[in-house]
Specification:
seven-stranded parallel β-sheet, Rossmann fold, NAD(P)-bd_dom_sf, lyase, alpha/beta, NAD, three-stranded mixed β-sheet, binds nicotinamide-adenine-dinucleotide, dTDP-glucose 4,6-dehydratase activity, single chain, binds 2'deoxy-thymidine-5'-diphospho-alpha-D-glucose
Length: about 350
């Protein structure tokens, strides 16, 4: 199996690449990533020399590059994670989300479809698979406390980020329907864990607590997210890629809802203990700031389909996962310093040339 994973230098992608490279030594894994601000090859330093792993620097907005790469490498499968992923950035710069998340995804669909058709595989593309990794944010915001997002929930994206991911999901399904491309999708809740870029809530708070900076809580801190340890998401992606039914969608989540303010308070307690600070010290850094524009109130995933049909379930309790995550950031200070200083980007500059 020649497998293309896009966005493998990012947070979730790096865990997916590691899992596939180590669990499937018989696969050839190609990691395609543009190394934007969110891409960091240090996330993969432990497996970068594995014989079944190849990194390709390239941009999914470049259609010709993708066609050439598919023609040259004849992939059997694609797991597509490359994206602009941060909601706040989508509010200030929506167009880069349209370009990467929508145009980039359609470029990738075209390259896969055309190269597989050229191999004589149309109309059913036997043995091929295009897997699109998406988000629960496409469903919008839940207001009734009893409600969960199921695979049947209507799309109602509220931010430029979620609108771009919803559009990309629709294109993937449209290619499945129109061209019979063998697609499968998943929509996952908030991930956390090692390698999480420190613009997102949990790593930002860990970093700010450590460096005694304010902990910015948007609005009243009452927005609810459903958190899943990133390795459990990678395990779910493995299950969907190998066992998911063609054309279907799987919701992935931890049944683990937390208000933002409760998470930040819990992190403050953990950090006080780990840093040997008197209890209550870090919580004094909590600062309520202007709310995110259009801030979705609550996300909560009903993950019964993947649990019942594919036998997946989360392996870690949240408190345990959060302890692990804090420990990872405290023991990987170089990673954090390189990211917050921007050194990680200078280091890789010139090391790879665009194809
Ligand atoms: P990330 O921002 O950490 O990583 C994205 C990766 O994509 C980076 O390595 C970046 O360099 C690469 N990339 C960006 N633009 C590119 C382009 N034009 N061409 C090639 N590569 C490009 O994102 P993440 O948090 O790891 O999310 C990965 C995927 O999972 C995304 O599709 C996201 O929508 C989805 N997702 C994320 C979460 C979450 O909680 N983070 C939850 C559900 C779904
Ligand atoms: O639900 C899945 C989504 O989760 C993914 O699709 C996105 O790629 C990922 O970024 C994440 O989106 P969120 O917007 O939920 O994540 P973020 O970490 O940015 O914010 C989590 C919550 O914390 C949200 O309610 C906003 C709030 N927040 C965030 C930051 C960065 C704060 O209160 N203060 C902050 O400084």
């Amino acid at each position: 199996m020649k497998l293309l994973i896009t966005g493998g230098a990012g947070f979730i992608g790096s865990h997916v690449v590691r899992l596939f490279v180590t669990k499937y030594p018989e696969y050839q894994i190609y990691n395609l990533d543009a190394l934007t601000y969110a891409g960091n090859l240090a996330n993969l330093s432990d497996i970068e020399k594995a014989p079944n792993y190849t990194f390709i620097k390239g941009d999914i907005t470049d259609a010709k590059f993708l066609v050439d790469m598919f023609t040259e490498l004849s992939f059997d499968g694609v797991i597509h994670l490359a994206a602009e992923s941060h909601v706040d950035r989508s509010i200030t710069d929506p167009m880069s989300f349209v370009m990467t998340n929508v145009v980039g995804t359609v470029n990738l669909l075209n390259a896969a479809k055309d190269s597989w058709a050229a191999e004589g595989m149309a109309p059913n593309f036997e043995g091929k698979r295009f897997y699109h990794v998406s988000t629960d944010e496409v469903f919008g915001s839940l207001h009734n406390p009893e409600d969960f997002f199921t695979e049947e929930t209507a799309y109602d994206p509220q931010s430029p980020y979620s609108a771009s991911k919803a559009a990309s999901d629709h294109f993937v399904r449209a290619y499945g329907n129109t061209y019979k491309l063998p697609v499968v999708l998943s929509n996952c809740s908030n991930n956390y864990g090692p390698n999480h870029f420190p613009e997102k809530l949990i790593p930002l708070m860990i970093h700010n607590i450590q460096t005694n900076k304010p902990l910015p809580i948007y609005g009243k801190g009452e927005n609810v997210r459903d958190w899943l340890f990133v390795v459990d998401h990678a395990r779910a992606i493995d299950a969907v890629f190998h066992k998911g039914k063609q054309g279907e969608t799987y919701n992935i989540g931890g049944f683990n809802e937390w208000k933002n303010i409760d998470i930040v308070n819990l992190l403050c307690q953990i950090m006080d203990r780990k840093l040997g600070r008197p209890e209550g010290t870090s919580a004094q850094l909590i600062t309520y700031v202007t709310d995110r524009a259009g801030h979705d109130l609550r996300y909560a995933i009903d993950a019964h389909k993947i649990m019942n049909n594919l036998g997946w379930q989360p392996s870690l309790q949240f408190e345990e996962g959060l302890e692990k995550t804090v420990d990872w950031f405290l023991t990987n200070q170089d990673w954090l310093n390189n990211v917050t200083s921007g050194a990680y980007q200078r280091y890789y500059q010139g090391m790879y040339t665009d194809r």
